[in-house]
Amino acid sequence: xxxxxxxxxxxxxxxxxxxxxxxxxxxxxxxxxxxxxxxxxxxxxxxxxxxxxxxxxxxxxxxxxxxxxxxxxxxxxxxxxxxxxxxxxxxxxxxxxxxxxxxxxxxxxxxxxxxxxxxxxxxx
Length: 124
What we know:
Helix content: over 70%
Largest sheet: none
Order of helices and strands: H
């Protein structure tokens, strides 16, 4: 009976279970070097692709900035023109009023001269 209870005889095997650590496979230095070279190549390709995307985005950004600056300049010029037009209209109104005042001053001077003559004619 002692033999029947033995694990070997019952068909059980005590081989290394998958839960136990297996010996690592031996990897050659050449395989590691090839894997590393492949990774470096892939990273270089990705860097080139990333750099191309970055360059494209920089161009788009510069183009958008340029467009925005043009729009800003146009709006600024338009606002300046509108304010300048209003100022020019006020200047013209002031010039017209000053011209009227000059004419009135001339008329007043003529009137004073006429009054002085009339006063001389009346007193003499």
